[in-house]
Design a protein that fits this description.
Order of helices and strands: HHHHHHHH
Largest sheet: none
Structural class: mainly alpha
Number of domains: 1
Number of strands: 0
Shape: globular
Length: 209
């Protein structure tokens, strides 16, 4: 049985890990060549994608991972690697190859919203770990509704924060944005390393290495 203090703790921890303010420069960097309308769509899609990913993992995540023989530590290591490569791109050290399409037949705002914004930044290994732990898979109607409502609230904050980022892109100059991208790239890279190290330590602790 959950108490309200635990729900408050869940909300605070999830907000801290999703880190909407800290990911605004990432959004600006990823949507730099988009129109204002496309940025707004990306912001809305990122909120929806974040909600869907976290809700699915909250109630079905453990079952899905076990069905593939994947532990949370394994998932955390993979997520850390993805975040690390993304950080290297933000630092200007690597550049991801183009998909080879002109974008006319693809919904680019939806693509960017799903990856790399919702996954692995907003609904990454850290956030997924939190919802897996707090959901407890009790499947009690009241508990499920509260967890889903809190996840929805955080997802709405993601969408609102990214919509504000579209406005901020006209306020801050390209030089400031570049500096923010480089600084955040280092922070995101450190977060990726932390995910990888934590995952490896957990794998070693269970004797798989």
């Amino acid at each position: 049985m959950f108490y309200w203090a635990e729900y408050v703790q869940f909300l605070i921890v999830l907000i801290a890990i999703v880190d909407v303010p800290g990911n605004i420069p990432v959004f600006l960097q990823q949507t730099g060549n988009m129109t204002i309308a496309e940025r707004r769509l990306t912001a809305l899609y990122s909120g929806v994608a974040t909600f869907l990913v976290l809700v699915v993992f909250a109630f079905l995540g453990e079952l899905v991972l076990k069905s593939f023989g994947i532990s949370l530590a394994d998932f955390q290591i993979l997520g850390g690697i993805v975040i690390l490569f993304f950080a290297l791109e933000m630092l200007g050290l690597i550049r991801f190859a183009s998909s080879g399409t002109d974008g006319k037949h693809m919904n680019r705002p939806l693509q960017i919203a799903i990856f790399p914004l919702a996954i692995p930044l907003f609904a990454g290994p850290g956030a997924i770990s939190v919802v897996l732990v707090y959901a407890h898979h009790d499947f009690q109607s009241s508990h499920d509704l509260i967890v889903a409502a809190l996840v929805l609230g955080v997802s709405v904050a993601v969408a609102i924060g990214m919509l504000a980022a579209s406005f901020l892109s006209h306020v801050i100059g390209p030089t400031v944005q570049l500096v923010l991208n480089r600084i955040l790239g280092m922070l995101v890279g450190a977060l990726g390393v932390e995910f990888i190290a934590s995952g490896i330590l957990e794998v070693m602790a269970r004797g798989d290495l």
